[in-house]
Amino acid sequence: ATVHFLVRSGRPVLTATAVPATRTVATRVRSVTGWCVSNWSVFAVLVLGLWTTNRHVLSFDGAMNAQVSQSLAAGRGYARHFGESVLFPGEIQTSGPILVVGAVLLAVFGTSNLVLQLPSILAMTGLAAAAASALRGRFSNVVVLLIVLSLPDLLQFGFNGYGEIAVAALEIVAIVLASRAAASGRRSQFVVAAAVAGLAIVTKTVAVAVVLPLCVMWWHARRSSVGGRRSALVLVASFLAVPIAWEVYRLATFRSFH
Q1: CB 101 within 8 A of CB 72
Q2: Is 48 helix (H, G, I), strand (E, B) or coil?
């Protein structure tokens, strides 16, 4: 607060004006540190991923995904070069974000088993973070860690270059954001949720399953600022933005409809 001395009727009067509090760097560091301590399962999954992938190489399917990332990093476009170079190969069933992340990592750090596995490690860590955000309670971290350790073949297919975990992480993020938007009436969260859902569908088409719960939550919140016809149009535009951008990129690559 700012203190002022005023003179009223010949007498000094002490007044104070409140100054809005600003978040300092130290405050933000404490906030991030508190989140890290409260969600220790996320870092446990990160360590588990580093330990697991250090003992394995990419699967065959994961290696083909990595070839697309290598092609993007080398400026050869979205192609695999196993046997022959093919643009947008149909056998590559994981698209978009995770392969672009892999291309950036390869361009910056070069090729190594750790770098090739890093997109999968980040996806699994993101899944744990999304689950920890969705689950609240004293034992939420234990539940997240038990889920990762106990689900059949999750460690095998979660790492080694597959894209399923990246899709699951994006879907959970979209659902968490949409549920919070439905509860709070904040349209911006719903717009981000729709964009994340579009990103998931670009990654793997099977992610279209997330559309149904998002529609149910929007219908539940239709009477708030989240609902309404205009809001629905904004959400649809946000949802379609990433898939349309991806198809435009594909069209530009082939220079024709393909």
Answers
A1: no
A2: helix
Handedness of CA 116, 74, 249, 231 (dihedral sign): positive
d(CA 168, CA 145) in angstroms, rounded, equals: 16
Question: What is the value of pTM for the model shown?
Answer: 0.76
Rounded Cα distance, 114 and 57, in Å: 9
Cβ proximity of 169 and 127 under 8 Å? yes
| Strand, coil or helix: 15 | strand
Number of Cβ within a 10 Å radius of residue 165: 24
Q: 215 in the Ramachandran plot: left (φ > 0), alpha (ψ -120 to 50) or beta?
A: alpha
148, 45 contact by CB (below 8 A): yes
Grouping H, G, I as helix, E, B as strand and the rest as coil, residue 164 is helix
- Residue 237 tokens read as 């535009």
Q: Over the stretch 61-96, which tens digit does the pLDDT of each residue have? A: 888 888 889 888 988 888 887 777 778 877 777 887
3-state secondary structure of 80: strand
Alpha-carbon separation of residue 124 from 19, 20, 159 (angstroms):
43, 39, 8
Residue type, 211: V
From CA 198, how far away is CA 76, in angstroms rounded? 26
